[in-house]
Amino acid sequence: MSIGTLDDALARLAHEDGVLVRVEATEGSAPREAGTWMLVWAQGLTATIGGGQLEFQAIDEARGLLKSPAAEPLRKRYPLGPSLGQCCGGVVHLSMRRVGAADAAELRRQLTEHLAPVAIFGGGHVGLALARLLATLPYSVRWIDSRDGVFPDALPAQVHTEHSEPVQDAVATLLPGTHVLIMSFSHAEDLDIVIACLRRLRERGDLPYVGLIGSKTKWATFRHRLEARGFAEAEMARITCPIGVPGVTGKEPEVIAVAVAAQLLQRRAAAG
Q1: Which one, 25, 76, 83, 169, has least CB within 10 Å?
Q2: Which residue ranges does the record assign to the XdhC Rossmann domain (predicted)?
Q3: Residue ranges per domain, the chain?
Q4: How far is CA 90 from CA 24, 54, 55, 81, in A?
């Protein structure tokens, strides 16, 4: 799903009906996982359920619904074998229903509720690059800064901005399971956010990833300050610094964003 895909789809619904096609369940090997969606229009598509003959047949079925306004929603089972000319060998269960302008708000909720939560602390260039990139991936982004007026006006539907002063207070209200990325405009704020995350981990242990942007030297300095505040070695080991997959070089915001997103996806895959 490209940046703006969901936003573009919801805007298009104001002018024409479409058919929402969702992967409800899969069995065995399948091109996409449950929750994947696409919107089929009389002309064109938004997003994809994996391509190939599966998608081709689903589009044909969906356009049949568009031609019949009174048609009931469909749920169909597609074996991915010789009949579809796909060698995945699994089974995909699809649902299809006609949607229009009145469904836009509910669709926004449905199509973002399954996304994994990420919190980005810091409204700078790297934060912006990350927010835009993560919005193209299966993440819902909470983007937080202590300063007013730092966020751009136009952002994807999966990105929600928030002003918090002091910024570390927002840590207490993060959803359980949130992946945290810390990259504020000052090292002092970064340290305050790290301390808030470590305290939450001590109390609830429900932040699976806390990443701090910076060098090994920065982390060494932070470690000394955290030790002085009573944090143990095992607690500090919960912080990832530097962030991003090894081997990706370059300090451009977009390069850093790619490396960090790859690290989050690796951890997501490892967690199943």
Answers
A1: 83
A2: 118-264
A3: 5-111, 115-270
A4: 14, 12, 15, 7
Q: Which two tokens stand for residue 156?
A: 């994807």
Residue 24 near residue 34, CB atoms below 8 Å: yes
Contact 104, 14 (CB under 8 A): yes
Choosing among 3.40.630.30, 3.40.50.720, 3.40.50.970, 3.40.630.10, the CATH entry for 115-270 is 3.40.50.720
Cα 244 to Cα 215: distance, rounded to the nearest angstrom: 11
Strand order through the sheet with 159-163 = 159-163, 139-145, 116-121, 179-182, 209-212, 239-240
Task: Say if residue 149 is exposed, middle or buried (CB neighbours under 10 Å; 0-12, 13-18, 19+).
Answer: exposed
One-letter amino acid for residue 164 of the chain? S
Q: Are strands 18-27 and 74-79 parallel, antiparallel or unpaired?
A: unpaired
The residue type found at 173 is T
pTM, entire model = 0.79
* Residue 44 Cα distances to 40, 47, 62, 157, 250, angstroms: 7, 10, 12, 21, 38
